[in-house]
Write a structure and sequence with these properties.
Oligomer: homodimer
Radius of gyration of chain A: 18 Å
Strand content of chain A: 5-15%
Shape of chain A: globular
Structural class of chain A: alpha+beta
Number of helices of chain A: 9
Chain lengths: 248, 248
């Protein structure tokens, strides 16, 4: 990689959010990256950095929303797109095109689960506060915990159960890929947001429970999660713990 | 392409839905394909065909949901993933990797718009009838028409406005790509679902209005849309016209 081609991640500095899916690829591979918006504004950071990209005053095709990745002249957005690009460079996906398509398919299914998780606390619109859509949120969260969460998690458990080539340890092909990192983070987030719903949904899903533990104990991931670089979940992101949305 | 490598699309036979984004790539390029679930069950079609894939009794990694593409031994799902794969083969995207990442970024942004459009009539959950979530749907649709629809359409208009290399005619690079087809179909769907909201949102967006007309008059697209192969929008798909969701 030429020296000027440093990796820059541009994402909200206050929450793990969707940026976390990108950070995990860098952290797992110990690839240096600049978490631009977490720098002070005097160093080109802060929310102002994000605004420069969204407003089109930076190079490239403006993104609709962060996370944004900049590498040299390339500026790209959308989590699954950024992860696909980085995984090829960082060797977190097999070189075979068919397996890359399967990886992308599963990554996009994770993205769908993440979007549905977000909408449990924002079922009516992102411009309203949670408190102003709480009644609808309770109903959406109830259906999510009862139906969607078990369906999605059961699906990923089944993918592992069927993947004999990895001895049921990883989702795609024979070995570890970025999709395993993304599922790991999603499981972390879901168990934070819905401790009751998550415990119930995973009771009979040994493969994803084992995957979560397997990834959590990878040395670079364990050391990252314990570090100050890893932002805790909070009530500004996707995975929010509102006890009233996790009741039976 | 070897003779056994025919393209098979597996999607609900009753609605255009997300399958339409895949069909348009075949239709534009006059590539033969089998619309499997629209065949009679006696020929391996019908909803039973979809169920075989979802239950894992067909080859490959089971998809979470249709549309599904089968080409020889490869079975893949997720619209943006299928379109990315097909666009490379059918030359509906430039060969340059950076432009393919931009195309995928915009395609995923279209997918986000499509998901938000769907949720205007299903804000609480896909397992409930529209009639049982109509009050929440009115509020979500109101915010969608007032905020999200103008934001998304304004975004795509701006992408065209900035793309001097295509003389503002196409979204990615210098020429026509699959992303233009997907935006075209999305605009068709939005104008069907929200005739008032769409008219207002596009009043000052000449670039996307022109793009829609430009794609509609491509000979293969015009002839497809006029054919019986092109299923009309209806109240079972993503783009549903409920007048009460398009009121001011």
């Amino acid at each position: 990689m030429p020296a000027h081609e440093r990796y820059e991640l541009i994402y909200w500095p206050f929450l793990p959010g969707r940026g976390e899916y990108v950070r995990l690829l860098f952290e797992e591979t110990r690839t240096p990256y600049v978490d631009v918006a977490r720098l002070p504004e005097s160093q080109g950071g802060g929310v102002a950095a994000i605004q420069r990209y969204l407003s089109g005053s930076e190079a490239g095709v403006p993104p609709f929303a962060p996370p944004i990745l900049r590498v040299g002249d390339l500026v790209i957005a959308q989590v699954a797109n950024i992860c696909q690009f980085l995984a090829r460079r960082l060797e977190l996906v097999p070189a075979e095109a068919g397996l890359q398509s399967i990886a992308n398919q599963l990554q996009l299914t994770i993205a769908d689960l993440v979007a549905e998780t977000h909408d449990t606390h924002h079922p009516l619109g992102v411009s309203l506060y949670y408190e102003d859509q709480q009644e609808a949120a309770r109903e959406r969260a109830r259906l999510f915990r009862a139906q969607r969460l078990p369906k999605f998690l059961g699906y990923f458990d089944q993918i592992l159960a069927r993947n004999e080539s990895s001895h049921h340890e990883y989702l795609v092909g024979e070995g570890f890929t970025y999709v395993d990192l993304s599922l790991f983070h999603t499981l972390r987030g879901l168990s934070h947001a819905f401790p009751n719903g998550y415990a119930r949904a995973t009771e009979r899903l040994p493969n994803i429970v084992a995957l979560r533990n397997r990834i959590a104990t990878r040395p670079n991931i364990a050391s990252y999660v314990a570090s100050a670089r890893c932002l805790p979940f909070n009530e500004h992101g996707i995975f929010r713990h509102y006890p009233e949305l996790d009741h039976d």
